C-alpha cells in the first residue's frame, strides 16, 4: 500500500482545492493506494502548523502519517531536504483540485520537483 499526502486549502478531501505551497496549506489529504493504483482510503488532516512552523515540523508531521510521497504545488529547498531525510518522495506541480492532482500523479503526468524561491 502506498500513502500519498496532498496539500489542500480546505477540508473537502478529494473535492478540495489544491494548495500551491505545502507550508501554508490548511489541510492535508492522505490517500492510500493499492498495488493496482486504486484509491482504497482517504483521510483529511488539519495542518497543525498552518499559521506558524519551524523548519522540519511539517515534514515530521507528514512522516508521522506514514507518507511515502508528498505532492504540493510548490516547496522550498529546506523542506525538500527534510523529506529526503525521512525517505519521502517529493513531487511538485498541481492541478486545481486535489482529485485532479492525485489522478494526474497516478497517471504519471505530475512528477519531479521544482523548488519555490518564496519570492511570490
Q: How would you concisely characterize the structure shown here?
A:
The protein has helices at 57-64, 77-86, 98-106; strands at residues 2-8, 27-33, 39-46, 69-72, 89-92. With 120 residues, it is of the alpha/beta class. The protein has a five-stranded mixed beta sheet, with helices on both faces.
What does this structure look like?
The protein is α/β, with parallel strands linked by helices and 120 residues long. It contains three helices and five strands. The protein is globular, with a radius of gyration of 13 Å. Helices cover 22% and strands 25% of the residues. The protein has one domain (2-49, 56-106): 2-Layer Sandwich (Nucleotidyltransferase, domain 5), CATH 3.30.420. It has a five-stranded mixed β-sheet with strand order 3-2-1-4-5, with helices on both faces. The termini are far apart.
Amino acid at each position: 500500500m502506498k500513502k500519498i499526502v496532498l496539500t489542500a486549502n480546505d477540508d473537502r478531501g478529494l473535492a478540495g482545492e489544491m494548495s500551491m505551497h505545502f507550508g501554508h496549506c490548511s489541510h492535508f489529504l492522505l490517500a492510500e493506494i493499492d498495488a493496482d493504483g486504486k484509491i482504497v482510503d482517504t483521510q483529511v488532516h488539519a495542518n497543525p502548523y498552518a499559521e506558524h512552523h519551524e523548519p522540519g515540523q511539517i515534514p515530521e508531521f507528514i512522516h508521522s502519517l506514514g507518507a511515502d510521497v508528498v505532492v504540493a504545488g510548490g516547496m522550498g529547498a529546506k523542506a525538500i531536504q527534510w523529506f529526503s531525510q525521512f525517505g519521502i518522495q517529493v513531487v511538485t506541480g498541481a492541478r486545481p483540485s486535489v482529485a485532479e492532482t492525485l489522478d494526474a500523479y497516478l497517471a504519471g503526468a505530475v512528477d519531479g520537483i521544482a523548488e519555490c524561491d518564496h519570492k511570490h
